[in-house]
Amino acid sequence: VYSNRRSPNKLTVSMLMGAMPWIANINDPQYIAAKKAIRKVFNQDPDMIRDGSTIPIARVFQNITRKSVMMLPIGAMDDGEHSQKEKISRFNYINGTKMFASFLLEISKLHASK
């Protein structure tokens, strides 16, 4: 951009820290159970987003155990994770608890069918 505009400004970008990316198989049985639990409690399909930006340990767990790892958050985008004003709404706390219970029920159904 600077060279196209013949700007005398300089820009230097540095990566001070980082982590290896982690990608999970969303067709894994635990993901299917989680989708069912989310639908049951929240009456909508989950957003299958790739965002584990502050949890680099997920890839480490997956590599060491050679098992599928899943993050099942109950917070909202505006909860201010890791900040001094981190919060969780009462709605998400109560329904998140219901979702975890529903998830355990769905997982038990998968294991019972084997």
UniProtKB/TrEMBL annotation:
Pfam families noted in UniProt: Peptidase_M20
The chain's coiled-coil residues are none
Keywords, in A-Z order: Hydrolase, Metal-binding, Protease
Q: What SUPFAM superfamilies has UniProt attached to this entry?
A: Zn-dependent exopeptidases
Alphabetical list of Gene3D superfamilies matching this protein: 3.30.70.360, Zn peptidases
Task: State any GO CC term.
Answer: cytosol
Q: What GO MF terms are annotated? A: dipeptidase activity; metal ion binding
Q: Does the keyword Ribonucleoprotein apply?
A: no
Q: Which GO terms describe its biological process?
A: proteolysis
Question: What name goes with this protein?
Answer: Peptidase M20 dimerisation domain-containing protein
Tell me the organism.
Micrurus surinamensis
